[in-house]
Amino acid sequence: MLTTEQRYQTSFGSLEHYEKGGVEVINDNPKNYAFSNVFEICNNSKPYEKVVFGINQIYVLEAIRA
Q1: DSSP character string of the chain
Q2: Which of 2, 15, 28, 33 could be disulfide-bonded to 6 (CB atoms 3.0-4.6 Å)?
Q3: What is the pLDDT of residue 50?
């Protein structure tokens, strides 16, 4: 059970409104990292264009602007 100090806060973003930053570590396992620059990358992409924005050994992070 989480205590008051351990609660997580969900942040929502969109192409019109996002907070630019670095990597927010969710867990100490590298495959669980979340990249905040995905909104900036998609904002510069064409509609329905698939873009790779991260590669970590066998994992590939892709985004599609829809």
Answers
A1: ---GGG--------SSS-----EE-SSSSGGG-EETTHHHHHHTSPTT-EEEEEEETTEEEEEE--
A2: 2
A3: 92
